[in-house]
Amino acid sequence: MKKNGNKVVVTVLLLLMSIPNFAQKITIQEAAEMAVKNNKDIKIGMMEVDREQIDVNKSWKQRFFKVSYNASANTHFKDVILKRTGESYQQYLSLSQPLFTGGKLKMGNEISKDNLKLAELKLEKTKKETVLSTVQAYIDVYEAISTLGVLQKSKEALDENYKIQTEKYNLRMVTKPEYREAERSVKDMEAQIVQQQGNIEIAKESLGILIGISNPSNIEIVPFGVEDNFTKNIDLKKDMEKLTTQNTEYKIAQKQIDISRKNTKLEKSSFYPTINGTINYGSLNSANRLKDVFRVRDFSSAAGVTFSWDIFDWGKRKEDVKYAKKTEEIAEVKSEQTLDQVRANMRKTYYQLQALEKSLEALKVAVESAEETYELEKERYSYNLITMNNLLDAEAKLRQSRVNYATSKLKYYYLVSQYGAFLD
Question: What is the pTM of this model?
Fold first, then answer.
């Protein structure tokens, strides 16, 4: 019975092992959407938006009347020797409606609305940064896979060369050092391929963390591209003008100025008095016995206003206003600084794109030239016109030119995404 049980376990394990791990194809757009959905910073930002909405509701409700219940019980004494003279009790309902606060409630509500908008802008900024990080991580995987493809192509060429060298060595047509060098080049390429495969797994793991994939090894990158001459279809001057209305970072800076200005007005409102209308109902007159305050026939009502005004506080309110004004000035300078920085970064990205467009043309020609050179060197080597080292140098240059071209093209894709993010 035990043997049969072991056989069943082994059979199940073999079946599980035979199930293939299907690759999960993910486009760059899908990766960005998954990252936005799974990013914890975005979830925190969404909760902060909800919190600010609660604050807006709270500040709005402060403008309306409040109903409170008041009760008191006191024991009275005649003098310092604590000779007791009697007791008094009181209970009543009170309705209080703010009539004038010097603008405190209005400013408080407007500031809470601005804080809500600020939280929404910060959430958009976090989403944008998350998308850019995901694009970069996706490109890192793409670049690692592209580099592996270049290395595998080089290995095919080196394997072919090693096969030829082996045949020639057996026929005593090449020296042992040349044969060993061909062998070494193959082994070195195999080592580079193994290392690059590890780089791919590391890059996939980083991408998997961003998009919430538990088994990132199964991620399959879908090739993508953008228009090669991107800068020819955009107008830098017009895009720079759009920054003041479309750039998220500048919008955040401007909203912080608005909040600072309203905070200054809020501090100035403390110089005005506060007036509340009140209506009280209950046992307004003190009773000597506790049970008397519950007799409805003795209940009475009263209406009036309460007036309060802070007259002297050693200049604290003036300092509060000065502090708020200084905060406002700081916010204005920071806003200018943000716009200058965004403009500089946008201009820098634009010129990097222009340079890469020219560079990509040159790198493509370099690959074609390196391919022709390598084929020529192979032919020359076959006639013993050059050494093995010359041939391997030509192959290395070809490999490097291919890597440079692939890397630059992917960098170009990222810069296009980065440029678009300035107007988002």
Answer: 0.81
